[in-house]
Design goal:
Length: about 350
């Protein structure tokens, strides 16, 4: 069962050819191009200048990564809200920060220039507000001036020493961003302007969280976690403990668990169960293997436990799922036939 959010992005990008990022300029002109050699994803990036020093962008991507290029402004601040999927930045300082749905990231534009965006779930939709702090200070909109917003103070407060920061998903952030998605085209510039001002007013009154926020990790640690993930995905029939993985990859268990959850949004066990059930569903749809054989192929020696896990995920038993997709299981093999 494909996640609804993935299908939402696929539907939106259905007319974008593979290997193409469509950049939409403020006047509505579309500029399709490959963002990097051999890029196989699909994406759309819309730009909306709001007021001096502030530009909104709306990004949809299907794929594993996307080069992220912009000027390394010493006074630049980028604020990003994740709506669907997950996104991570591999920054120049050797740090990687990942966001899940509803999370908000703030980072100086000097540390994320010419970085790489990663999409561990192979899909993403979100907004970014890019600020040139010095320009914004010189042309502060009336609402921000009335609220005594100091753009430079925002950069100092949330990104001391030039490091990225993040706010976890919360109701008040959802209140700001929810109206921005799925707006009619003619209302977007006006709404984006109002909501950008509201966001900056909100951040001016908000303190960086001490606990519960997404954390930045060393890029080397994230590389190890991606290698572990690829290893697990390639062999869903194998069962391996976290302790064994930690020993194999020379990482302590607590770091392995925390970085894996930061990147993929779930603990290892839950993520693997989801992958096993997705693979089992594919085998049930596309092959006529027995339920027992399919159970073993996705790491279940006990067919009863497999059926229960499958029902927990899809709300139907494997036999019912297969029947609904019009597949007949193979009968017993005749040993006299080759």
């Amino acid at each position: 069962m494909e996640a609804n959010w993935t299908q939402t992005i696929k539907t939106y990008l259905a007319e974008v050819p593979p290997g193409t990022l469509v950049e939409v300029s403020p006047n509505g002109e579309e500029h399709p191009h490959p963002p990097a050699p051999h890029w196989t994803g699909r994406g759309r990036l819309e730009h909306y200048p709001l007021f001096p020093g502030a530009v909104f962008t709306h990004l949809w991507v299907l794929g594993e990564s996307l080069p992220h290029r912009h000027a390394a402004l010493g006074s630049g601040l980028e604020i990003t809200h994740c709506r669907l999927g997950r996104v991570g930045w591999e920054m120049q300082e050797g740090l990687t920060l990942y966001l899940g749905p509803g999370d908000l990231a703030l980072h100086p534009m000097a540390c994320c220039a010419h970085s790489l965006l990663r999409f561990p779930l192979e899909g993403y939709e979100g907004f970014s507000l890019s600020l040139d702090v010095e320009t914004l200070k010189a042309h502060l909109p009336p609402a921000l001036a009335l609220g005594r917003v100091d753009p430079g103070r925002l950069l100092e407060k949330f990104c001391p020493q030039g490091k990225p920061a993040a706010l976890p998903a919360r109701a008040d952030l959802d209140h700001i961003f929810r109206p921005l998605y799925d707006l009619p085209a003619d209302l977007r510039p006006a709404y984006y302007t109002l909501k950008a001002e509201e966001l900056l007013l909100y951040l001016a009154q908000t303190q960086p969280p001490k606990e519960g926020a997404p954390q930045a990790y060393l890029s080397q640690q994230v590389e190890v976690i991606r290698a572990i993930h690829d290893q697990l995905m390639a062999h869903p029939d194998r069962r391996v403990t976290i302790e064994a993985l930690a020993r194999e990859h020379h990482m302590n268990t607590s770091t392995l668990k925390s970085v894996f959850k930061a990147v993929y949004g779930q603990p290892i066990a839950a993520h693997m169960k989801h992958h096993r059930m997705e693979e089992a569903a594919r085998l049930l749809r596309e092959t006529d293997g027995s339920i027992g054989d399919i159970a073993q192929q996705v790491g279940y020696e006990n067919q009863s436990k497999f059926s229960q896990a499958f029902r927990d995920t899809f709300q139907v038993l494997p036999t019912e799922y297969r029947r609904a997709h019009g597949v007949q299981a193979a009968g017993p093999r005749d040993p006299s036939r080759p």
